[in-house]
Amino acid sequence: MRGFRLSAAAAIAVLAVALLPGTAGAAAHRTPVVLFPAFHFTKLLVTVHDQHAAPGCPRSGSFQDWFLNDHPSTRFSQVCEDKLLTLRYARRSHRPMAQRFSNQRGVSVRILHYGSTESAPFYEPLYQALEAAGYTRDRNIRVAGYDSRLTPDMHGFLRRTKRLIESTYRANGRTPVHLVGHSNGPLYAQYLLTHTSRAWKRRFIHGFTPIAGNLPGQGALYPLLFTGLNIEDFTYPSTTANARSSAWMYVSAPSSYMSAADPRIFGGREIVVRDASTGRSYTPKGYRRLFRDAGLGWVNPIANHYIGFVKFADPRHFPRVDVYAEKGSGIATVVGAVLPNLRVGQVLDPTTAHFFVRDGDVNQEDITNGAVRAWRKMDCFRFHLTDNPGVDHFSLPSDPGVLGRLVTDLARPRSAC
């Protein structure tokens, strides 16, 4: 989830897929695609009406929030946007965890262009490659966007996404739908697949392509709870005010914990935070102590609930559909950082800070990207995991090889299970 610029592979990808044999003569009802975008790759519209949560910020107005946002606000500063997107958490509530979070008073958030490819413009190369293979946007290419602060048990995600898949199925001659997810997107797709019946999947689902799925979380998320990260360009905040506003936004978001390395998969295999003021190091299995030492013990109930929230590694939670997974490798990848202390909202200079690294795809480490191999034990259903050495996390969805395999897999008949 760090800074990059989009790969120049888009045109090559489109050409490569267009030249694949057999695509021109594909069946009239091509396997429809529903895409689950990455973390903050869905366009959100934030509307503010008479807010009092952030003094000094506009009382009313609106702004958009999404990665590479080309409509930045001229009224709301980054600090104001962070404060207004920081969720309220009812610490003493006895309600189910998913019901303890709410927007600031006077703030509403909705997905722009839900279901349309316009809602996730980062994936333009993927859309173009599918169009070259005979697909049509917003007919058999749909997008299941979501508010990336929230987890898939919140805000009607499951009900809304099932409706989108079912309507896409009907609009394409009752053709089962293929799910494609990138980065955090596969977490949401996997939650759907494990919260629907086998009969529903037999009727509506063709298969699943997770591209660098963040299924067990990643180590680099833990430092962001102290440093923040600006969504617009995935860079570290450069001022104390911005670091504080951004870090607190992540602390308040349940998806932060869902996206953090799960100790049941990671154990103590990597250091995610080292406190330079004490010399103490923390691994994923020590997350509770990390939060207590940081004076954040109140988040441990959230962390206990949402770290490892989307189950996938045991047979009970296998997706039970054909899976064609993709991952990158061979790139030094940050998994943790040495922080001056455990204060929330510290400025981290990426040119001087010390980071812990492992092999990975520049965003997610090898432990994360390899965890999907648990699905090799699925009975009957296909499972393939293709490694793409040297292809970074953000270039995978536009890589010609990945897109070529996707088109091929869309044309495969489902396993008869």
Detailed description of the structure:
The chain has one domain (10-410): Rossmann fold (3-Layer(aba) Sandwich). It is built from 14 helices and 15 strands. Helix 1 packs parallel to helix 14 and helix 7 (221-227) crosses helix 8 (240-252). The strands form 4 sheets. It has a 6-stranded parallel sheet with strand order 7-1-8-9-12-15, sandwiched between helices. Helix content is 28%, strand content 18%. The model is unreliable at 2-27 (pLDDT under 50). By secondary structure, the protein is α/β, with parallel strands linked by helices. It has helices at residues 10-18, 78-85, 124-132, 157-171, 185-193, 198-204, 221-227, 240-252, 254-258, 263-266, 287-293, 300-306, 366-370, 400-410, and strands at 33-36, 44-48, 61-65, 88-89, 101-102, 107-111, 141-143, 177-182, 205-211, 273-275, 280-282, 323-329, 331-339, 355-360, 383-389.
Using brief descriptors, characterize the structure shown:
four-stranded mixed sheet; 28% helix; Rossmann fold; six-stranded parallel sheet; alpha/beta; disordered N terminus; 417 residues; 14 helices; 15 strands
In short:
The chain has 417 residues and is α/β, with parallel strands linked by helices. 28% of the residues lie in helices and 18% in strands. α2 (78-85) packs parallel to α8.
Please give the structural blueprint.
Elements: H1 10-18, E1 33-36, E2 44-48, E3 61-65, H2 78-85, E4 88-89, E5 101-102, E6 107-111, H3 124-132, E7 141-143, H4 157-171, E8 177-182, H5 185-193, H6 198-204, E9 205-211, H7 221-227, H8 240-252, H9 254-258, H10 263-266, E10 273-275, E11 280-282, H11 287-293, H12 300-306, E12 323-329, E13 331-339, E14 355-360, H13 366-370, E15 383-389, H14 400-410
Parallel strand pairs: 1-7, 1-8, 8-9, 9-12, 10-13, 12-15
Antiparallel strand pairs: 2-3, 2-6, 4-5, 10-11, 13-14
